[in-house]
Write a structure and sequence with these properties.
The complex is a heterotrimer of chains A (161), B (783) and C (289). By secondary structure, chain B is of the alpha+beta class. Chain B has 19 helices and 31 strands. In chain B, the strands form eight sheets. In chain B, strands 3-7-1-14-11-12-13 form a seven-stranded mixed β-sheet, sandwiched between helices. Chain B is globular and about 85 Å long. Chain C is built from twelve helices and 14 strands. In chain C, the strands form four sheets. In chain C, strands 4-5-10-6-7 form a five-stranded antiparallel β-sheet. Chain C has a four-stranded antiparallel β-sheet with strand order 11-12-13-14, sandwiched between helices. Classes of the chains: A alpha+beta (161), B alpha+beta (783), C alpha+beta (289).
């Protein structure tokens, strides 16, 4: 018998009530039940980070959390970043610094970057490289990604004053 | 003439970026399709064996299972790649294995169920009884009595090419003042795109058509493969390649699983999808680069190479991948080994051996990473033996500017490049960056690596035809169509997947039409939408696909000028297309907007007499013979004597791909390519046990490097415009990957100069370097 | 790569966890951060019949100092230790937050828990090495009440512990504070499990090493103490000669397995290197305070 559960989760500001089988990963719930297909699956064993989303503000691998575990939690996915047509500062910086090519890993890197930036870091290239090393990209060689995160860290620091 | 080339050369932001950044790109698995069923494959647990029984009854009884299919259910259909050469033995890759299994991971049964979860449950319940047979896995086993992979080729050789016979070569080598006999090897690696393979198939009754959406670089070639395997006319198969999460050659061949899913959808009359998981991707898709080169190279006292003989062996795995065949690595290697060097006498034998490992596909660079490693390794060893500077020996052997066009002993004519200039500039950059002082620092094991090379890109049919593929790729056809609002749609048979074609093609077309690239939309990756084409691989798309789009745009511009001339009562030859307007040269007030031209053609045709074709459309084709890009790479590395770990401290590339359409994109392609090259030099290897079990089936064991392992990569450009192409550009998608392994190996050998390491293989692992550098040492502080 | 089916249960306090474990039997498993268990389930290498999710259990995320004990609640995330900076708490245990930075990657550290790591007991896991280094005890709670297991008795083999199926790790108690400590590791790629790792902790009196512990990871199925090397170091001058000799002894004392990353000899050489570096780092960091 399927082990099903009624869960409630707030995703990108919207409340959802879902019946999900316990073994379904959060990544599959987001993609299949909520249609939020920006969260990608690249390895399903927690190495590549393409499925990185924020749960209660913390970055997590959505392939390593079961959907039922997100009951009562607040989630943010890549779809939450832009304001209408306007890309946010990190998205714009990725484009400016060519931090994406095929774009498959990009949502994971953006959410990883957002999580890191939310800790108000002092911009430090070595630290950014280390943070960015949490996820895999096969196209860019990472330079543009690191450049983008560094630039936004600097800008947000200035705007914090 | 048209307008000045204003958009080409700009760092125009990519048209593709916003959707990818929003998460609204559409990759195959992102596309919903009502109640699509899910496929899971039951795979052979053994590398070699005879299937003695398959029991699917338990799986069929499980909840949510719709079908369980074996080879018999698919009429034992297969894919057959053919080279029309006597030295080639064609073999069939069955869609599902039926009598024999030839590698661990080979698909035997497909389960179709309501979800991937249920499909995997049922796949576990299928019983496949395999009687194990001896396996052959490694090139080192060759020579003795070997297990037979294919009855058609009892000695395991599927392709055996003897090329460029030279009766004088042997005596030249024997008399050479310096004869180097060396063996170079490269490990089996994986393209590892971040998106694994994926497909979604549906039979659409209304169109009497099978619609196969899949992550591919080559939609038209997939259409042919599927049509042949399922005995359908090509019209009855529509292949759509949506956003593709990286390919690198893994997706320029047709996967058997993709055809199985198509067959299942047709049979069940229900949509079926399959998303390859990472374990399947690493252990059961396509691999590349497992090669060995036994070379003999003769040099004179001045370090000039006088002859080269190569025995090249490629471990091509269990099957020939469709449509390129297992000839792709041996042919490339034998044909292009001499590279940028003037090798007066040359001969090569290149063989592809079948083994009990997954088949190989043309991974980014195809044999060029190896041949550059071989040639650069030979140059450096000869320099060391002759007491020459390693840059100087390259200078003496490199095809110089005054040598172009240069006809090589390999029958290839090299059109102008900047081989010497790139070398000199790159070496100069290493000096400017202070590398040589850093290298000399006491107590550090540091080395500087160099690799100078060229690569033939954008092969057209004339060059591809020499391979004698039953399906010979090469040309492209593009359509450019202006709508009534003045916007333009370009269609191309190439199929970009990260290379930014929507941006660069628009730049090329914009310059010819005098409109903003933002008004030009490239549509690609759909066999019903585009007329025909070969897809994106082999550094061909911007040159051939973009070139054909540029030709089409040029023709469309002529039509626009003709109409505008009539509207302006001027001579078409005097009309310029600039910034959205058609204007009379020298009389900028006499002008009409291109939007008005477009509106007139569509809505007021009765007012025009010159509008013979009624619509603003044009077609362009391109089929160049192929042209050589070149580059010189340099790396500074440091070996940690305590761990054997390698840090790539800094990296420089000087590259020449002719006219650079978008420098940001070119730099990105180079950097990403270098990262992949570093990966295969230092990190990645698909290790197999002697009995053919994969030992690196996850991203925990297959070490795709992270941001911490990949250095900053400085990219410098030289531009030798190519007069063989419409745009002056040469291909450049693979160069980064081609140069990096040789560069890293050269740097390691330089770092180990006191140890006489003579490394001639990749990847080089820390354990090996640790053995070479000897005693453990702590950090500087306690020394 | 989808997990086999299982029953999901959520527990809100330790008593409920234990009740559920008793009821569900030994095929059930606790899931905390899930950073090791979930991948194993996705590969179907682990297929528990039921999961007891302990994330809703409150009161187990803390880092507390009591005398010579540093008590870390089982649900404390690696990241919480990494960014904790209270000198009162960390006095004598400064290696802990520094070493936490070696654990996987930032998102892994945000989710994975100290208790989960102790329960999973990977022989190169940082917490397991640190626990051995600091003579920790693992506090478990089961139907028979609470018991405190000295770490030496905790690890029983590769990925196995002396914890029972109906017990939950609730706390790890680190003991023996010392002024100097370091954990050094080597992996080919940032964030990967170490090929080998070495932890050292000691005090220094009159420039002589005292109260020395040395632990080695990645050399056997469980983390191991280099007892002979510890004896060599005890009372010896704090000089490179001392730890170079001791590191050779430590390396010679183990017989590590071979794998894709290298053979036993390579791991022994790594032990030698990493141990020397651990002493250098420990002294440098100790001096900084």
């Amino acid at each position: 018998m399927k082990d099903q559960h009624l869960v409630t989760m707030r995703v990108n500001g919207r409340e959802h009530e879902l019946v999900i089988e316990s073994r379904k990963t959060l990544a599959d719930v987001l993609r299949q039940d909520l249609g939020l297909t920006g969260t990608h699956l690249g390895c399903e064993h927690g190495i590549c980070g393409a499925c990185t989303v924020l749960m209660d503000g913390e970055p997590i691998r959505a392939c390593l959390v079961f959907g039922v575990q997100a009951d009562g939690r607040e989630l943010r996915t890549v779809e939450s970043l832009a304001d209408g047509d306007e890309l946010n500062d990190l998205q714009q910086a990725f484009s400016k610094h060519h931090g994406l090519q095929c774009g498959f890993c990009t949502p994971g890197f953006l959410m990883l970057g957002e999580a890191y930036l939310s800790t108000n870091p002092e911009p430090d290239r070595d630290e950014v490289r280390e943070v960015v090393s949490a996820n895999l990209c096969r196209c860019t060689g990472y330079q543009g990604i690191v450049d983008a995160v560094c630039e936004v860290a600097e800008k947000r620091k200035v705007s914090r004053g | 003439m048209t307008t000045a080339a204003t958009w080409v050369g700009n760092r125009l932001p990519r048209r593709e970026d916003p959707r990818m950044l929003r998460g609204t790109g559409r990759f195959t698995d992102d596309i919903s399709s009502g109640h699509a069923l899910h496929a899971a494959f039951v795979r052979s647990p053994m590398a070699s064996g005879r299937i003695v029984g398959v029991d699917v009854s338990a799986a069929l009884d499980m909840s949510g299972v719709v079908a369980v299919l074996t080879s018999a259910d698919l009429d034992d259909a297969g894919l057959r790649a053919v080279l029309e050469r006597p030295e080639f033995i064609a073999t069939t890759m069955p869609l599902l294995a039926h009598d024999r299994v030839r590698y661990a991971g080979e698909p035997v049964v497909v389960v179709i169920a309501e979800s991937r979860y249920l499909a995997e449950d049922a796949a576990e319940a299928v019983e496949v009884d395999v009687e194990e047979m001896p396996a052959v896995t490694s090139l080192s086993e060759l020579g003795g009595e070997l297990p037979v992979v294919h009855e058609e080729a009892p000695d395991g050789v599927l392709v055996d090419l003897q090329m460029f016979q030279d009766d004088m070569l042997e005596s030249a080598l024997e008399e050479a003042p310096l004869l180097l006999e060396r063996t170079f090897q490269s490990g089996r690696v994986h393209a590892a795109p971040m998106e694994s393979r994926a497909c979604l198939a549906e039979w659409v009754d209304r169109d009497e058509q099978l619609v196969l959406t899949l992550s591919t670089q080559v939609p038209h070639q997939v259409r042919t493969g599927v049509a042949q395997a399922l005995d359908l006319p090509e019209r009855a198969v529509r292949v759509i390649s949506p956003d593709v999460g990286g390919g690198f050659g893994l997706k320029c061949v047709v996967g058997r699983e993709e055809v199985v899913v198509a067959a299942a959808a047709k049979r069940l009359r229900q949509p079926v999808r399959w998303s390859e998981d990472r374990q399947e991707n690493l252990t059961a898709s396509f691999h590349g680069r497992e090669q060995e080169y036994r070379v003999r190279a003769g040099f004179d006292e001045a370090g000039r190479i006088i002859g080269l003989d190569a025995d090249i062996r490629c471990n091509i795995g269990a099957y020939s991948a469709f449509p390129f065949s297992c000839g792709v690595e041996p042919l490339m290697a034998a044909t292009e080994l001499p590279g940028v060097y003037k090798v007066p006498r040359y001969a090569a034998r290149a063989r592809g051996f079948a083994t009990n490992k997954p088949p190989t596909a043309p991974y980014r660079g195809v044999s060029r990473p190896q041949i550059v490693m071989v040639m650069e390794g030979l140059m450096e060893e000869a320099a060391a033996r002759l007491g020459l500077d390693r840059v100087e020996i390259r200078r003496r052997n490199t095809i110089a500017t005054e040598d172009f066009p240069y006809l090589g002993a390999n029958g290839i004519t090299y059109e102008p490049g900047s081989y010497i200039e790139a070398l000199e500039m790159c070496v100069e950059e290493t000096r400017k960056h202070g590398w040589w002082e850093s290298r000399a620092e006491e107590g550090k094991i540091r080395g500087i690596g160099l690799a100078n090379f060229s690569e033939r890109t954008a092969y057209g049919t004339a060059t591809m035809g020499m391979r004698k593929m039953a399906m010979t790729p090469g040309f492209e056809v593009a359509h450019v169509k202006m709508d009534a609002s003045g916007d333009v749609v370009v269609t191309s048979g190439t199929c970009g997947h990260g290379q930014g074609h929507e941006t660069t093609f628009a730049q090329l077309v914009a310059d010819r039409l005098g409109i903003h690239p933002g008004r030009i939309k490239l549509r690609q990756g759909d066999t019903d939408l585009t007329s025909f084409g070969w897809g994106t691989f082999g550094s061909r798309s911007l040159v051939i696909g973009g070139g054909s789009a540029a030709v089409a745009a040029r023709r469309l511009a002529d039509k626009i000028r003709t109409i505008a001339a009539e509207m302006l009562e001027a001579d078409a030859a005097d009309i310029e297309l600039i910034e959205g307007h058609a204007q009379v040269s020298g009389a900028p007030d006499a002008r009409v907007s291109i939007d008005d031209v477009a509106a007139n053609v569509h809505f007021r045709a009765h007012t025009l007499t010159s509008n013979e074709e009624q619509l603003l459309e044009a077609r362009g084709t391109a089929d160049p013979s192929g042209m050589f890009s070149n580059a010189c790479h340099a790396a500074l590395v440091e070996i940690d004597p305590g761990t054997g770990g390698v840090e790539v401290c800094d990296y420089i590339v000087v590259e020449d791909c002719g006219v650079v359409v978008n420098p940001m994109i070119v730099d990105g392609q180079v950097r990403g390519g270098v990262a992949q090259g570093i990966a295969s030099a230092l990190f990645e290897e698909l290790v197999y046990s002697p009995d053919g079990q994969p030992m690196a089936g996850t991203f925990m064991d297959y070490l795709v490097p992270t941001a911490s392992e990949i250095p900053q990569i400085a990219v410098h450009h030289l531009e030798t415009p190519c007069d063989l192409t419409e745009t002056g550009s040469k291909g450049m998608g693979e160069g980064g990957t081609i140069g990096a392994p040789a560069t890293i190996l050269s740097a390691l050998n330089d770092a180990l100069r006191d140890h006489r390491a003579g490394l001639r293989h990749v990847p080089v692992a820390p354990a090996e370097l640790k053995r070479l550098v000897g005693v453990p040492t702590a950090t500087q502080e306690d020394a | 790569m989808k997990p086999a089916s299982f029953e999901y249960h959520r527990a809100h306090d330790v008593a409920e966890v234990v009740e559920l474990l008793v009821e569900l039997g030994d095929d059930a498993k606790i899931i905390a951060g899930g950073q090791s268990l979930a991948p194993m389930m996705n590969f179907r290498l682990a297929r528990p019949s039921a999961l007891v999710d302990v994330n809703p259990v409150s009161g187990l995320d803390y880092i507390r100092r009591e005398g010579d004990l540093l008590r870390i609640g089982a649900m404390t995330r690696h990241r919480d230790v990494e960014i904790s900076r209270d000198p009162e708490v960390h006095d004598g245990f400064a290696v802990l937050p520094r070493a936490a930075r070696w654990i996987g990657h930032y998102p892994i550290r945000c989710r994975g828990t100290v208790g989960g790591s102790m329960a999973h007991s990977d022989p190169t896991a940082e917490w397991c090495l640190l626990a051995l280094l600091h003579d920790a005890s693992v506090v478990v709670q089961g139907p028979r009440g609470q018991r405190t297991v000295p770490v030496a008795e905790w690890f029983t083999g590769f990925l196995t512990t002396s914890g029972e199926y109906d017990e939950m790790v609730v706390e790890t108690q680190f003991a023996r504070p010392r002024a100097y400590g370091a954990l050094t590791e080597y992996a080919r790629r940032r964030g990967d499990f170490a090929i080998s790792a070495v932890g050292v902790a000691f005090d220094k009196v009159d420039n002589r090493l005292t109260d020395v512990s040395v632990v080695l990871g990645g050399v056997a199925g469980v983390p191991v103490r280099a007892t002979e090397a510890e004896a060599m170091l005890e009372g010896s001058p704090a000089t490179p000669e001392t730890w170079v000799a001791a590191s050779r002894n430590a390396a010679a004392s183990v017989n590590p397995p071979s794998d894709l990353n290298g053979d036993g000899d390579y791991r022994r050489q790594l032990v030698e290197t990493l141990m020397q570096r651990a002493f250098v780092e420990a002294l440098a960091e100790g001096a900084r305070r």
